[in-house]
Design brief:
Blueprint lengths: L1 E7 L2 E10 L10 E9 L2 E2 L6 H13 L2
Length: 64
């Protein structure tokens, strides 16, 4: 599991995730599986919309 910090409008989020590389031989695009999104030590993953979670995953993918 990997960790990173994401800044969203001045709010620092600590994100724990797994990253999988793409595998063209089976048509898998790869991606990020987010496990937790914390703010000041409190997991707020369940409070965030799917759209926000996906945008965080996309931002992490851009780093690879």
């Amino acid at each position: 599991m990997e960790e990173t910090q994401i800044d969203r409008d001045g709010v620092i989020l600590d994100v724990e995730y797994d990253f999988e590389d793409a595998d063209d031989t089976v048509g898998y695009n790869g991606g990020v599986q987010i496990h937790t999104i914390k703010h000041e030590g409190v997991d707020i993953y369940d409070l965030l919309s799917d759209k926000v979670i996906q945008s965080i995953a996309d931002e992490i993918c851009e780093g690879y």
